[in-house]
Amino acid sequence: MVKTLQHMNLSQVYPAVLADFNLNTCGDPDCGNFGVAPDFTIPVFKGKNAAQRKQAAAASIPALTTGLGSYTMSSDDHHPRISEVFEYAGDPVGWDDGRSMECGHQRGNSICNISFAVLSNEHFLEEYYRLLLAGGCLEGPVCGACGARYLENPDEFIFNGTHGKLAPGGNRRKAKPSGFRIIHRPCKGKPGARLSVSLDHQAQKELRDNVRILRCIVNGDSITTMRRVLADPDTGKQIGVSRLYSRVFWLEKTLLAFERAKLKEWKQRVEASDRFSHMRIALDDVTISVNWESRFDRRLTPLQFSVSADIRSGYVFRIDANFDPNVDPVEFIQEHYLDDTGQPTNLRQHYSQKSGVTFTAPKMQFQRPSGRLDEAMLFASAEGRWRVFSERVQNAYEKTVNAGFALPPEAQEKIAEADDKRYQLDQIRQGYFGFHDTDRDFRGSFNGSVVKPTYTKAAHLACLRDMLPKGKITLVGEQEATMVRVVPHVFRDMINEDMFEWFVISFDKEVSAPKSKERMARFTEGLEAFKERARAKLGDDISDRELLEHYCTKRMSTACIEGRNGTKYSHAIPNFQSRQFPQVWIKTPAQYFGETQKVVGFPVLRKKYRDPLKKLAFDQKVHDPELRAALTRRALKATIQPVSTFMSSLRHRTSPSKRAGGKGARTGPAYINGAVFNPAVLMAFLNIFRVYYNWFEARQYKGPGAAAGSESPVPAGMSSIRIPGTKESLEVPKMATTAPVMLTPAMRLGADPEKPNGRPRKAPDPRRVLYRPWLYHGTPLWRKFENR
Ligand SMILES: [Zn+2]
Ligand SMILES: [Zn+2]
What we know:
- By secondary structure, the chain is an alpha+beta fold.
- About 35% of the residues lie in helices and about 15% in strands.
- Among the domains are: about 5-120, no CATH class; about 330-440; about 480-640, no CATH class.
- The chain has 23 helices and 29 strands.
- The strands form ten sheets. Strands 14-13-12-19-20-25-24-21 form an eight-stranded mixed β-sheet, sandwiched between helices. It has a three-stranded mixed β-sheet with strand order 1-4-3.
- The structure holds zinc ion (2 copies).
């Protein structure tokens, strides 16, 4: 018989709140508890005459009537666990690894009741910094005494001389210092307050190689090809894989720092101008697999990447994986779950009740130090490392053992130690926390751990929000369960200011190309006929855009899924059927840009339109003409096309991201020869490709919601055709009337602005970008390095 644990209440488990962020409040923008943390001073009435006593107290405590700050907590029974070791040895207890909260705000005659799983704000913050600093590579110098970052407060640091020397040569006429010393002024005199800074690329002799690596990455070459390309031309000696990797990481860092500096300038420019900024962002998740193998099995592990791109310009702002390459599973567990003597610690949470009774319980996921990560995998991977270690030692001595000799004492001792570690890990992992077994046990010769997608998603959105200029943001994505939990909280301030909208689309992805073309042709045909009729009636003044909107407003309808017996079902997945969102989804008649049969939902909409839409049931028709027009306008621009375009370019051009067989992202994993083994390298490849795509490669860009002007008129004129067998030619009129406008996404975004001289625009030369100290852009160190 398994016991259950003591009862805990919300005030005992409610996670710490950050200064300006809290994931654990009601997520309904129209609820009085939106962004309001629980108020634990509200008295709870239980027992005899509870209702009367509550009513009597309500006169002096208004929260009892309104429910402001009122929440209840229940067990999140999706993750039942059993602990049967340590204090529970021989006396197992069952518990739920998580809690959910329900909002108790009064809403008309009923209670809000929106429920959500409790998450840790600290885990969010940790993930936010990981993405913000790109896993640490954009962190910059840090004061060794207090941990202050130079890049965050450059004014607090003072110069303290130079060090090192760069010999003359190349375009250096004189020897120059290779680095600078700086002191964190507030910590002056303390150890670690003085640090020296130099540029990473100074140690690299062949600067040209970096440009070659960049070209290789963006042109689909594999690691093997890169090693061949970089081989010594005389001896043919190839560069080592780890050296190549460090070059790749350097490239990633330099390009990310360059992009960050440029986008910061762009943001400041936009904010300083009087123009109102409205960014439309397409967001989609893609799965890319890495070869994650040991000597004994070859399998793939899918990583989930969140990709956000600007709909108007096609600029891809971020691509973030739910994988933290800086976590060493063995070290992590030793640091967080074992004390100095190697004994388990941090396993239990202490509680005390009002009556003075104290008790402990196993830490729940939002309380555990490892709660941000996929813990089953993390623990299994740590245990697997010890197993691999033992196996390798034993294999090495195979001959000795076969010959009947014992292992050397030192090896025996280490194997025994590894066995102890494995036993201990297993006790914590399965005996105490009850994590299920996973087959992802001992794969991976590299560091890292998979992160829970909810935290990565929240951090991705928060980083994106902070990159964009102040103004309005419209987010367009697909139906993803994790979004429901985090979007209202990440954008809470903007929602309150009515400056944020969020649409969710689905369209026919399985359709064949000819079928899709046929649909688009039929739509265009209908639209053109409508335009002709309308213009005959209304005159020529009315624009194409207006007519398109009229046409679609008339024909849009409420989308439902119809069951076999005629029952109607909501188009939304269960998470989106929550009362916090409007339930009406619309089917738009527009069939264009490859997204056909589109259905659009409006989880967050301007208050003006949200209020009437929320009043409708999921299968009701929208009658109000103003609301219909507003929804149509939004549906016409709701697209994830910029992400799809980027992804198809990525899959086409970089070898590591090619899909293993089949077309769908979720076809079964199979081993890809030549794919990347290390997720950190894959992530670097994707970031390098992204910056290259954004800044260095001009392309034509079209799509719903794209900036107009993807084509420019060609002046009418003549061209000549040579007459065969003669030296004469025939003058004929030019055929093309328009030419594609080739710009980079950065140019269209305005981050790479037009120069005043009005010459044709060119993408920057990567050679000129790569060797500048972008990491220090805008700080005194930037000036020092630039002018030295
Ligand atoms: Zn609520
Ligand atoms: Zn300091």
